[in-house]
Structure prediction request, 408 residues.
Amino acid sequence: MQLTQDLELFPEYTVTQLLFKDVKNATELRKMAVNGEIKGALINPSMVVDAFQILVATNKAVHLHKIGKMKTRSLYSEIIFNLSPTNNISEAFKRFGVSDSDCAVHIVLVHNKEENLNVDDIISKVDGQQIPVDQVSDLMDAAKIKKLYKVAPQEEKCGSLLDAVVCRMATKDVA
Amino acid sequence: MAQSNSLKACVPAYLKEAQLIKQGAEARVYRATFLGRPVVIKERFTKLYRHPEVDEKLTRRRTTQEVRSILRCRRAGINAPVVYFVDYTTHCIFLEDIVHSVSVRDHIASAQTPQHLQALVEKIGEVLAQMHDEDVIHGDLTTSNMLLVPGAEHQHIHLVLIDFGLSYISALPEDKGVDLYVLEKAFLSTHPKTETLFERLLKSYSASSKKSSAVIKKLDEVRLRGRKRSMVG
Ligand SMILES: Nc1ncnc2c1ncn2[C@@H]1O[C@H](COP(=O)(O)OP(=O)(O)OP(=O)(O)O)[C@@H](O)[C@H]1O
Ligand SMILES: [Mg+2]
Prediction:
């Protein structure tokens, strides 16, 4: 159900993604993330095309964390910031972070490979139904994503929406 | 300026395990897996004979130009590899691996007759016209910097442009003309007796771009200058 991927560049780290629908306690979860009760990034799944998009944001966050060049205060906020096509931090949170009215949540956890990750503990905090992470594309709002990332129809001639999104995320510092 | 080695250590350790596919004068190109996907990594390295600060700036600029132009092309629907990650501390670009591709250079070299190549050069002319209409000047147009993805039907040629490290943005017909001149030189010297084929490429370029007549005029001027220079020199 959950998806786990090693970061090849940072062999000590592993990323685990979890997806939930019919969530009734988004407000509470958001508070837990803020006060550190949940050590993870809570993302609005309607802005996610594919789990790979999350991995690209996470890899970049870990990289910037390691070289001391993060734009935000924590690794988890940096993941959310990296998803955004712009450099406006508060806008990134508004668009990509989970908000109180959301009824689906995409959770990203970055942990040490050796460390025993207590996934059940996090699952127990969510009042909602866990679904396979690859179903995130069914929850996305493609029209909203295209508008925000400014993806014109012609670009889809040379690749998928995921390609368009990932390419912007990876190059936004210089674009 | 100086980054400590521990900070930079991740990428070099990773590249040690990667497969080196090309060692160039300014860059090394590798194949590896990144976030579970096949990728090509282009690493620009320091030139010891250049002043460190000048070198750092130049290398960074090349990396920046490359990713900017790739994005600009893709936005316009022109095929170029997707950028997955850029590390500005080690000057590495992680690109989508265009799997099973062959360079246009190798394809032309292995083709039986030039007739087989007409559709291909027409496609090249069309794509370059599109690129120039976006004001992207490639800066290093050669048949090695174009990849061909096989499997596609004859009518649909899948051409991918790569190696944008010397690219820049310009609307000047002169810059576009020089871009084509560089290609012409490279094309005719790597592929002997292809003058007619290259003419066909230019014809397709002209037919595909609204702004082509000024560019071709400049190309003619640049050719003339080149000839005069070689007569003197
Ligand atoms: N995205 C890619 N997918 C598949 N193969 C690639 C890709 N990028 C590069 N290659 C292969 O690697 C070779 C070298 O790449 P590239 O042309 O970008 O580097 P280079 O010529 O060394 O660069 P420079 O001219 O800046 O020194 C290409 O000719 C091609 O065969
Ligand atoms: Mg090259």
